[in-house]
Sequence to fold (468 residues):
Amino acid sequence: MAEIKSLKSTGVQDECGILGIAAKCEQEIAHDVYFGLFALQHRGQESAGIALSKGDSSVAYYKNMGLVSEVFDQEKLSIFPYAKTAVGHVRYANKGSNNVVNAQPVVFFGRYGRVALSFSGALINAQQLKDEMLKNGHIFQSSVDSEVLASYVNYCANDDAVSGAINAAKKLVGAFAFVYMVGETLIAVRDGYGIKPLIMGERDGDIIFASESCALEALSAKIVRDVLPGEVVVVDKDRNISSYFFTKGCKKPCIFEHVYTARADSKMDGVSVYESRRQAGRKLAELYNVEADIVAGVPDSALAAAKGYSEVSGLPFTDALIKNRYIGRTFIQPSQAMRENSVKIKLSAFAHNIKGKRLVLIDDSIVRGTTSKKIITLLRQAGATEVHMMIASPMVINPCHFGVDMDTKEQLIANGRTEEEIRQIIGADSLHYLPVESLCEACGGKEYCTGCFDGDYSFDISGYYPEN
Ligand code: SF4
Fold:
C-alpha cells in the first residue's frame, strides 16, 4: 500500500485521470472512453464523466459521483450517439468539495462553441486567475481548478480555440495536463515541467491521449510518444496533428508516479513503472542487510519492490498480506473515520506464511504512519516474530503543491522526526528508507520532482509557499 496504501489511508491522494480520443470516423466512442477510464480508475474514484462532440458544435455528456462502473452502465453508454471526438475523466477530490458540481469533464459554451475539458493537476495561481476573470464579469459555479482553467482557456482565446489553450498555458503556474475538445478538434496540453503525465497513442488512425499508457493498452492502442513538457498537441477535425510549445519545456516529472500513483504496467516518459519499483527494492537490499527469513510487500504498489529485494537479498518472496480487491483505495474516503474503517477491512495477514518468521516488509512510502502501525500490529498478531520495515522511497517531509494531496506538513510523520523515532511510533523492529539519489537511479536516472522528499520541487515555489 505502498503507503498510499500507506499513502492511501494516511492522506496522500492523487488527482485525476484524463482521456481524449480523436477518432478517424464515427464510432461507439463512449464505450472506448469507458474502457480507457476503467484502466485509469486507480487515479481517482470519486467521480467519472464522459463528453463527446456530436460534430455540430453540440456536446453530449454525463458525469456523476462514483466509480466508472457505477456511473456508467450499458443503458447510459448506449444513449451516447456515435461520434469521432470525446474526452473523459476520473476524479479524486484533491481540491474542492466532493460533489457532482466538481465532477469533470467541464462542459460549457465558449467563444468557439460548446466545449469540454478534462483536467488533472493543481494550479498554484488559480485564485489569481479567477480574480482577474471575476473582475471582468465572469461567474463560477464550482470550487475547483478545472473550472478556472476552462474559463481561462476561453478567456484567452483571441483568435481561435487553439490560441486559447496556448495563451492560457503560458499564464498557468503549477502542474497540469488537460485535454480540451472543441467541435471535432482535440487539444492536449502538458505543463512546462511535465509534472503531470500525458501520453499519446494511436489505433488504426485514431489518436488517443491518456494520463497513463495502461489506458492505451486497454484500448489496443500503441504508444506514439509522451506529450512533451510545455507542448500543446492539436488534432484537427481531419485528424492532422500539429504541435506548439507555450514555453521551453524542462522535464522534471513527479517521481511519486513511480513510487505509488501510476499503475505498475504503465510507462512514464519511457520508464517502466514496474521496473522502477523493482529496482528500488533491489537498491534497498544492496543498502540494508537485515537478518530475516522472508520478504513481503504491502499490496499492490510495493510488490514489485519486494520482488527486487528478494532477488538481491536471497530471502524468499512471500505473500504476507492479502487485499480485499472489492474495496476502493482507502485514501479515497473523505472522512478520517471512514478511512480508519476501510483500512481494517482492506487487508488481512497470511498467518500460515508468516507464523514464527522474521519478516522484511516493503512499503512504497509512509505519510502519516497510521497505516504502517496497523499493518505491523496485524502481522505480529498473525505470528511474525520480527517485522523489519523497508520503505522504497525517502521520508516524506514536505507537502506536495502539485496536485498530490499529502496533507499538511504537521501531519507528516517524518516532519521533525528521526528514523528511529518513526520506527518506535509504528512499532517496527527496524526501519530503513531509500535515499532520494537511489530512488532517482531506480527510476531511470532522470531528472524528477522530488519536492515532497527533499524540497527540490520541479520549479522554485518559495514565492508562493515561503514556509517550504
Ligand atoms: S512534490 Fe512529490 S508528489 Fe508532488 S509532484 Fe513533486 S514528487 Fe510528486
User: Anything to note?
Assistant: The pocket of iron/sulfur cluster is lined by residues 195, 254-256, 400, 402, 404, 449-452, 457 (CB under 6 Å). The domain at 12-256 is CATH 3.60.20.10 (Glutamine Phosphoribosylpyrophosphate, subunit 1, domain 1).
